[in-house]
From TrEMBL:
This is Damage-control phosphatase ARMT1-like metal-binding domain-containing protein. Its cofactor is Ni(2+); Mn(2+). Coiled coil: none annotated. InterPro entries: ARMT-1-like_metal-bd_sf (IPR036075), ARMT1-like_metal-bd (IPR002791), At2g17340 (IPR016949), At2g17340_3_helix_bundle (IPR035073), Type_II_PanK (IPR004567). Keywords: Hydrolase, Manganese, Metal-binding, Nickel. GO terms for cellular component: cytosol; nucleus. GO terms for molecular function: ATP binding; hydrolase activity; metal ion binding. Residues 52-358 form the Damage-control phosphatase ARMT1-like metal-binding domain.
Length: 364
């Protein structure tokens, strides 16, 4: 059943036409027997099975849903059955399996049972924590006089913020107890060179301040958006760029939604409408039309498509959007994919370490 807020979806206008596919990691080859799951399919399907206890736990404590405990159990059983059926017969849906389909089915089962946003509580806590640290993070960035070093620090902040999602809850706990752990995390990223490391090329282009309009597809609530993306976006605003932050229409995992992002920005802005002294008159918050932790760029909101037409840099942030679904996506303008590797399956595909970093810059 469609949500009232779901806008009509259209292709992202800056996508290079041709052979775009929203799935980076092929789960099977054309020569594989369609009725037998491949080792890659099995490892990814098991990954989805392993998420069920976390989802169930958060669903049980969703006070907005009557009889949440029983419904959470029903979710767990139904979604597990779907995944087990795929393991028996990967061709049962009539389309090749990829990361989008289980994500979509998981959301569908939750919604059918009345769950709208099972991670709302944890998102609210993470946002409050990160908002209290925002000023300090920005001051530390602003104190770096060398522009190249400041950019590298901002990029490290995006990676550090990107750790704090539900795949790394123990880090989130440390973070909520001790704000310093954000800067410690920035320092303790795996050493460069990262698995894909175009930072130096990106730095050279950054120093020219040539992007007039930048679109950033954002990822998680909390440290990710508030301490990672927003200081970076603020720096772009300082450069004179217009910045569009594209956030999910509907909740999924702990991703920040359009409505939540509007609220976050209003809490961080001062009376003059500035983010720590930088005007937000060139900052636009857009609804991407998406409702998953991954994104198919043939399906974005008409609003975003309209805003995107003359952008000259597209940034996809986070593992779901920047690696699992769009690592090789090509655009009619410069593009940056920036994310941390948090699944062993992704690390294996990239030939990287777990918690390795990806900064892939493609200049038009």
């Amino acid at each position: 059943m469609g949500s009232i807020s779901q806008p009509q979806l259209v292709p992202f206008p800056l996508l290079m036409n041709g052979n775009y596919t929203a799935s980076t990691i092929p789960w099977r080859l054309p020569s594989d027997d369609p009725s037998i799951p491949t080792p890659i399919e099995l490892s990814w399907l098991n990954l989805f099975l392993n998420t069920i206890p976390t989802f169930k736990k958060h669903a049980e404590s969703d006070t907005s849903v009557p009889d949440a405990v029983n419904k959470a159990e029903e979710f767990a059983q139904r979604f597990a059955r779907i995944i087990e059926d795929f393991k028996k017969d990967p061709a049962s849906q009539g389309v090749p399996l990829d990361v989008l389909l289980p994500c979509r089915l998981r959301e569908q089962v939750l919604k059918e049972l009345g769950f709208r946003d099972i991670f709302k509580k944890i998102k609210d806590v993470e946002n409050a924590n990160a908002i209290s640290l925002f000023e300090n993070v920005v001051r530390l960035n602003d104190a770096i006089e060398d522009e190249g070093k400041r950019l590298e620090n901002l990029v490290r902040g995006i990676f550090a913020g990107n750790i704090f999602d539900l795949g790394a809850s123990q880090l989130a706990e440390v973070f909520s107890r001790d704000g310093m752990s954000f800067s410690v995390t920035c320092q303790n990223l795996v050493p460069r060179p990262w698995v894909i490391d175009d930072l130096e090329t990106f730095k050279m282009k950054w120093s020219k301040k040539s992007w007039k309009k930048v679109i950033i597809f954002v990822d998680n609530s909390g440290a990710d958006i508030i301490l990672g993306i927003l200081p970076f976006a603020r720096e772009l605003l300082r450069h004179g760029s217009q910045v569009i932050l594209a956030a999910n229409d509907l909740p999924s995992l702990n991703d920040v939604t359009y409505a939540e992002l509007l609220e976050i920005i209003s809490k961080l802005k001062d009376e003059e409408g500035c983010l720590m002294g930088v005007s937000t008159s060139n900052l636009i918050i857009a609804n991407s039309g998406n409702d998953l932790p991954v994104i198919d760029l043939t399906r974005v909101s008409q609003e975003l498509a309209y805003l995107a037409n003359d952008a000259d840099l597209v940034i996809l942030e986070g593992m779901g959007r920047g690696i699992e679904t769009n690592l090789y996506a090509q655009f009619k303008c410069d593009s940056l994919k920036i994310a941390m590797v948090k699944h062993p399956e992704v690390a294996e595909f990239l030939g990287s370490r777990l918690y390795d970093c990806v900064i892939k810059y493609d200049e038009l």
